[in-house]
């Protein structure tokens, strides 16, 4: 038996209880978790914004040590340190054939299949986003584990599984930030902090952090922001003023609200690029006029998992971490146990802090 935080049903409180994990079958791996990040996507799964069969063990941003492998698993062995990949590409669907593994049609299949049972009554449990890392241990497909390069602390490495890959990819793969450019980052949570660091790594000259909470200025500046703007009705105007009246070359929206997306787009220059990382609900409608789309010539792009190929990007990020360019611990504002996850959800809803990290 292992301890886990279970979501009994949508919008219900998490319950920390014992669960039973099966032995890993062919092509599966059992991982003992060292740490798990609490991501806004977990909150979205718990409240129904994103679909997830229940009851479920949530959590998708994790790192740990392999304790058992099933038949046919060759790329990791018992004792290996690994990072969980919540969206493993199948390699054979239409999108994988286009070399776009972040859009894989089958990446979410594991989330829809029971993987464990409740110890108290044997009822089936589903793995949140296929990984279920809000637990002391988990069993996942071998494709969902990535070997962790040397030189990165195992606990902090959990952040590489979602926040950092997403933030790095938003800057490098989607917005295409170049040295000397200006970047506006909307939302200074865990992903936003990763975006700020990634913009600094990319060589951005002016990095403007925008958030509704004035208290996040210190966090933002420590991550690389050169300026901090408290969000308000004239946010886009203030960002344009900080960039010579033209607007930022690129903006990254990490909130998932229609008004924030619209503001981020409006704060870029003519020809500017906006990457939307935040996941909003179906009720969040963003409006543009046909004339302004023509006149400004801006680009608005969705961003799924940073448009990353984790197998290729993880070693790059590990290198930045080893060389001191990427400070993983700077993203973490709270280190908690499993019973602290509800408070972390509340803090995210209220816009407080950066990343909360469950430490086992």
Helix content: 25-40%
Rg over C-alpha atoms, rounded to the nearest angstrom: 20 Å
Main sheet attributes: strand count, strand direction, barrel closure? 7 strands, mixed
Could you give the distance between the termini? 15 Å
Shape: globular
| H/I helix tally | 11
What is the overall pLDDT average? 96
Q: Residue ranges: pLDDT <50 for 5 or more in a row?
A: none
Series of secondary-structure elements, N-terminal to C-terminal: EEEHEEEHEEEEHHEHEHEHEHEHEHEHE
Beta percentage is 25-35%
Please tell me about this protein's structure.
The protein has 360 residues and is an alpha/beta fold. It is built from 11 helices and 18 strands. β14, α8 and β15 form a beta-alpha-beta unit. The longest helix is centred in the C-terminal third of the chain and has 13 residues, at 310-322. The two termini are 15 Å apart.
Write the topology of this structure.
Blueprint: E1 2-7, E2 15-20, E3 28-38, H1 40-46, E4 56-57, E5 61-69, E6 81-84, H2 94-97, E7 116-118, E8 124-127, E9 137-141, E10 145-147, H3 154-157, H4 163-174, E11 182-186, H5 190-201, E12 206-211, H6 217-223, E13 227-230, H7 235-242, E14 248-253, H8 258-266, E15 268-276, H9 290-296, E16 299-302, H10 310-322, E17 332-336, H11 341-350, E18 355-359
Parallel strand pairs: 4-8, 11-12, 11-14, 12-13, 14-15, 15-16, 17-18
Antiparallel strand pairs: 1-2, 1-4, 2-7, 3-5, 3-9, 3-18, 5-6, 6-10, 7-8
TL;DR of this structure?
By secondary structure, this protein is α/β, with parallel strands linked by helices. The protein contains eleven helices and 18 strands. The strands form three sheets. Strands 3, 5, 6, 9, 10, 17 and 18 form a seven-stranded mixed β-sheet that branches. Strands 13-12-11-14-15-16 form a six-stranded parallel β-sheet, with helices on both faces.
């Amino acid at each position: 038996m292992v301890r886990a935080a279970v979501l009994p049903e949508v919008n219900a409180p998490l319950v920390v209880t014992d669960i039973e994990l099966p032995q890993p079958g062919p092509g599966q791996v059992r991982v003992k978790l060292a740490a798990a990040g609490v991501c806004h996507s977990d909150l979205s799964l718990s409240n129904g914004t994103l679909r997830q069969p229940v009851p479920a063990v949530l959590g998708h941003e994790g790192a740990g040590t392999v304790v058992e492998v099933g038949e046919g698993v060759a790329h990791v062995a018992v004792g290996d340190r690994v990072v969980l990949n919540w969206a493993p590409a199948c390699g054979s669907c239409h999108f994988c054939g286009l070399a776009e593994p972040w859009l894989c049609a089958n990446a979410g299949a594991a989330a829809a299949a029971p993987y464990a049972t409740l110890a108290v009554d044997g009822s089936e449990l589903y793995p949140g986003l296929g990984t279920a890392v809000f637990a002391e241990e988990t069993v996942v497909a071998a494709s969902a584990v990535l070997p962790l390069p040397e030189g990165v602390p195992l606990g902090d490495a959990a952040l590489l599984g979602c926040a950092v890959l997403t933030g790095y990819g938003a800057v490098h793969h989607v917005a295409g930030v170049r040295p000397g450019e200006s970047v506006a980052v909307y939302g200074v949570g865990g992903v936003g902090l990763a975006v700020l660091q990634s913009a600094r790594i990319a060589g951005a000259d002016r990095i403007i952090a925008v958030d509704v909470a004035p208290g996040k200025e210190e966090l933002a500046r420590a991550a690389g922001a050169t300026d901090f703007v408290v969000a308000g009705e004239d946010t886009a105007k203030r960002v344009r003023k900080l960039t010579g009246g033209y607007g930022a070359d690129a903006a990254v929206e990490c909130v998932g609200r229609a008004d924030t997306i619209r503001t981020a787009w409006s704060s870029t220059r003519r020809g500017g690029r906006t990457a939307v990382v935040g996941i909003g609900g179906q009720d969040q409608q963003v409006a543009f006029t046909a004339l302004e789309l023509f006149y400004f010539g801006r680009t608005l792009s969705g961003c799924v998992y940073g448009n990353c190929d984790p197998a290729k990007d993880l070693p790059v990020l590990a290198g930045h971490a080893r060389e001191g360019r990427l400070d993983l611990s700077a993203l973490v504002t709270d280190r908690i146990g499993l019973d602290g996850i509800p408070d972390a959800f509340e803090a995210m809803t209220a816009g407080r802090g950066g990343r909360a990290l469950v430490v086992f």
